[in-house]
Design goal:
mainly alpha, three-stranded antiparallel beta sheet, about 50% helix, globular, binds manganese (III) ion
Length: about 200
């Protein structure tokens, strides 16, 4: 069965950009609920103990109708939040170096241009969803808990949660301010590691 992992830093570690209250609620309540509901869904499958989250999300179309939507919503929720915690750090911010920095500069002309395009996609994404940086360095917004694995893509390099639960306690309706602050906690080493992995 799937388990909620520990955060690699404390709930207060990302202040002042993301408060401890948001991190605690987001991890211990929202993410936990995705894990619980994912487990309830896969419990109905014959070989639940051997399931891998990536394979599940890549193979949604092979699942029985009775569990497919629950796995999409809650399995997506589990995978996406695991990735989200991993690519943030109290030592984050700044600009990527190494292979990732070169790849972003080559595709977007400059790091600032990349940040502007990603932020714009996140600001205009309607309702609840995520903005992803795909493995081929495309920026793509997706609704709900969808991610590129569900559309035949590879594991994304990074993602930004723009559900209101991710920022409302700190920023109310000011999603643009949340997005601006989020860049200060992005762990570029972790994103570069995913690119090289
Ligand atoms: Mn969330």
């Amino acid at each position: 069965m799937f388990k909620l992992g520990q955060l690699p830093y404390d709930y207060a570690a990302l202040t002042p950009h993301i408060s401890a209250d948001i991190m605690r609620l987001h991890h211990s309540k929202h993410h936990q609920t995705y894990v619980d509901k994912l487990n309830a869904a896969v419990d109905q499958l014959p070989d639940a103990s051997s399931l891998d989250i990536v394979q599940l999300l890549q193979g949604l179309s092979d699942l029985p109708d009775s569990v497919r939507q629950a796995v999409r919503n809650h399995g997506g929720g589990h995978y996406n939040h695991q990735l989200f915690w991993e690519i943030m750090s109290p030592n984050g911010g700044g600009e990527p170096s190494g292979e990732l920095g070169r790849a972003i500069n080559s595709k977007y002309g400059s790091f600032q241009n990349f940040v502007d395009q990603f932020s714009d996609e996140a600001t205009k994404l309607f309702g609840s969803g995520w903005v992803w940086l795909n493995r081929d360095l495309e920026i793509v917004g997706m609704p709900n808990q969808d991610n590129p694995l569900m559309y035949g893509g590879q594991a994304p390099l990074m993602g930004l949660d723009v559900w209101e639960h991710a920022y409302y306690l700190d920023y109310y309706n000011r999603r643009d301010e949340y997005i601006r602050q989020w860049w200060e906690v992005v762990d570029w080493e972790a994103v570069d590691y995913r690119l090289r992995g």
